[in-house]
Design the sequence.
C-alpha cells in the first residue's frame, strides 16, 4: 500500500482503524456491525451517516454503547468524508449509489469497503475498476462475504486433494421464497424496483458466482433464462443458466447448471452438488458431504459429513480489509473480482434476454 | 381391435395369450419373463428365438419349467413368426433391429410389444408410426415400463391436487456410474458401439422423458449439451438440457433442467425435484417427499414422505398389452408416445451438436 493515508495509521502499532459507516440500513446493522464488534481491538466506528437522521442517530447510539464515547453522525456523506478521524469507510447503501459515494470517498483519501453488487450496471462497474487503478495508495474492496466463508475454503481444499476425482458436473442452487410479509429485504424498494440491473437475481447472484469462481475458476455461460413468478419482488425472481467453468489449479474444468429462485416453497438455501468420477460433494450451507459408491458394491453409497460453521465471512472480510490497509497483502475480494462476479451474472441475464 | 387375429383368442374366455419372445438377452431374462411369470393365468410363452442357439435353448428351458411343457425355440425369427400358436411377440433385441423385426411381425399378423427406444433413429421411428397406422387390427406397443410405474402415477395425482401449488422449476437427474467391470449393460456392444442414435444417453433418456411427459406434458428443449467422460461406454455419456414443459390438465407449464450422466460416482438413480410456489416434491426412485415451509415460520420446513414400491412397471405393461389385445382400451404406451419420447431426446442431442 502507498504511504499517504496509510502511515498515519500503522496497524502494526495496534492503533485502531477509524471507520466511517455510510448507510445505516439492514446491511450495517445486521451484517457489518456484528463483525466490527468482534474486532474491537483493531477497528472502531468513528462516524456514521444516513440520509434519515433517525437511522443515523440509532446506529451512532449503538456505537456509543460499544466504545463508551460519543460517535458523530451525519445525514450528508460528504460531511463524514471531510473528517480527519475517518481513515476508511464502509459504503452500505442502495447499490445505485455505490459508484458515486465510492468515488467521493477515494477522492477524500479514504480506504473503501463497498457492499455488493459492486455497481448498478457494468458501465459503473468499469468506472469502479478505473478508480482502483487510479488510487493504488488506497485499499478498495467489495464486501463479498462469500469469499471469506470457511465452508468454501474447506471445499476447495477437499476438491484439490482429489476427494471426488475429476469434476463431472456442478449444480448450484440458491433457492428461497422471499415474501414481503416475512422478509425485510423483500420490502426494500431499491431492490424490488430494480434500481440496479437484475434486482434480486443480481443481489443473490453475485454471492453464488463469487463462491463458484473461487472454487471452479471463471464461468462461461452458454445458455440462460430468467423469469418472474411474484412481481411483488421485482421484474425477475429466477434465473437458470448453463455454464462451463475454466478450472483452477488442481480442479478440472466442468459443465454446470446455476439456478437462482426467490419464489420456491419447500426447498431453500445455498446448495451445491458437485459430481465427480470418484465421488460427489454436496455443500449445503455450512455442511459438506462426500458421497462415494463402494468400489466392491457399486450400488452402495458411503457417506462422510463435515460441518464448518462460519459467520458467513463477515469477520474475515474485515480482517482482510485491515490487513490490506496494513500493507500485508492485496485483498482477496478486490474490485476486479467483484467486477467479474457482476459481469458474469449480468452476462447471464443479458443472454436470457432480460437485460435492462 | 379388429377381428382377424383377435377373435381367435378372446381374452374374456380366459384363454392364454400365446407370446413369442424374440431376443433372449438381458431384457427378456431380467425384465420381461419375471413379469410374465406373474401373469401365468393370462399369458404363456409359446415360442422363443435368439440368434445364438444356446441363449434360445436356455430361455426355452425356463419356459418349459414354468408351464411343464416343451417350448419350441428358433434362431431365425421368421420361423417363429410363421407359427400359428404365436398370437403376439415381444421384440427384445438390439435397438437397430426393432423396425425390421416389428415390420415382419405385423406383416405376419402378430401383436407386438417392442422394447424401447422405439427405433434406431427418427426415420425408422416414423416408419414405426406408419406400421401402427397401417395395422389398426393389431396392438403395437412400446415396452416403456416407466409409463406404468406407480410412483409417477401417485406423483401426478399429488401435483394435480395442488400439493405444491404452481410448478416453479423441474430438475430431473438420472445419474449413475456405469462401468463395464460391474454392469452388464455396459458390456453390450450394440449400446457402447452406438448401433442406435445416442447410445446410453438415448437408452436412459427415453425412460426419463416418458416419465416427465406423463407428469408435465410435452417438453420443448431450449438448450442442450452432451459430453463424454468414459469413452469405454460410448461416444457420449452425459446430457444436460434446459426445457419448458407444456403442462397438462391441472399441472402448470414450467421450466426445467434434465441431466443424464453415466459417469458420476457417489450419487445415483432417478431423482426429480419439482419446486412449487406452495411446496416442493422430491421423487427419489419409489419415494415421494413433499417439503413445505411452515407459513408462520418461513425458515422451518415441514416434510412428508410416502413410499410407493413397484416392479418398475413391467407387470402393468403386460396387463396393458393384454387389455389392449382384448379390445378394452388403446394401450398407454403407444407407438406414438414412444416416438415422441425418442424425438424429444434425439432433438436434445442434435441441439447439443451430438447428432449422429
Sequence:
Amino acid at each position: 500500500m502507498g504511504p499517504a493515508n496509510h502511515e498515519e495509521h500503522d496497524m502494526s502499532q495496534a492503533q485502531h482503524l477509524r471507520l466511517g459507516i455510510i448507510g445505516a440500513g439492514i446491511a450495517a446493522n445486521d451484517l457489518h456491525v456484528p463483525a466490527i464488534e468482534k474486532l474491537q481491538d483493531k477497528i472502531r466506528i468513528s462516524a456514521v451517516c444516513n440520509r434519515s437522521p433517525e437511522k443515523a442517530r440509532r446506529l451512532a447510539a449503538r456505537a456509543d454503547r460499544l466504545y463508551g464515547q460519543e460517535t458523530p453522525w451525519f445525514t450528508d456523506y460528504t460531511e463524514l468524508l471531510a473528517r480527519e478521524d475517518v481513515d476508511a469507510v464502509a459504503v452500505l447503501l442502495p447499490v445505485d449509489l455505490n459508484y458515486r459515494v465510492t468515488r467521493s470517498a477515494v477522492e477524500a483519501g479514504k480506504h473503501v469497503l463497498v457492499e455488493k453488487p459492486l455497481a448498478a450496471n457494468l458501465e459503473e462497474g468499469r468506472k469502479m475498476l478505473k478508480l482502483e487503478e487510479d488510487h493504488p495508495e488506497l485499499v478498495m474492496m467489495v464486501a463479498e462475504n462469500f469469499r471469506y466463508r470457511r465452508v468454501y475454503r474447506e471445499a476447495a481444499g477437499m476438491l484439490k486433494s482429489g476427494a471426488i476425482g475429476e469434476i463431472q458436473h456442478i449444480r448450484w442452487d440458491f433457492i428461497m421464497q422471499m415474501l414481503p410479509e416475512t422478509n425485510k429485504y423483500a420490502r426494500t424498494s431499491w431492490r424490488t424496483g430494480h434500481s440496479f440491473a437484475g434486482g434480486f437475481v443480481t443481489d443473490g447472484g453475485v454471492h453464488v458466482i463469487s463462491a463458484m469462481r473461487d472454487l471452479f475458476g471463471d464461468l462461461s455461460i452458454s445458455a440462460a433464462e430468467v423469469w418472474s413468478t411474484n412481481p411483488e419482488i421485482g421484474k425477475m425472481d429466477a434465473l437458470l443458466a448453463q455454464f462451463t467453468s475454466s478450472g483452477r489449479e488442481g480442479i478440472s474444468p466442468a459443465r454446470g447448471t446455476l439456478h437462482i429462485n426467490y419464489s420456491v416453497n419447500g426447498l431453500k438455501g445455498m446448495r451445491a452438488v458437485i459430481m465427480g468420477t470418484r465421488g460427489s460433494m454436496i455443500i449445503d450451507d455450512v455442511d459438506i458431504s462426500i458421497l462415494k459408491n463402494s468400489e466392491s458394491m457399486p450400488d452402495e453409497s458411503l457417506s462422510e459429513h463435515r460441518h464448518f460453521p462460519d459467520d458467513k465471512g463477515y469477520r474475515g472480510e474485515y480482517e482482510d480489509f485491515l490487513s490490506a490497509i496494513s500493507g500485508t497483502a492485496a485483498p482477496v475480494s478486490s474490485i476486479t473480482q467483484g467486477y467479474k462476479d457482476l459481469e458474469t451474472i449480468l452476462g447471464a441475464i443479458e443472454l436470457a434476454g432480460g437485460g435492462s
Observations:
- Chain A has two domains: 4-145+315-333, 150-309.
- The domain at 150-309 of chain A is CATH 3.30.360.10 (Dihydrodipicolinate Reductase; domain 2).
- The longest strand of chain A covers residues 167-175.
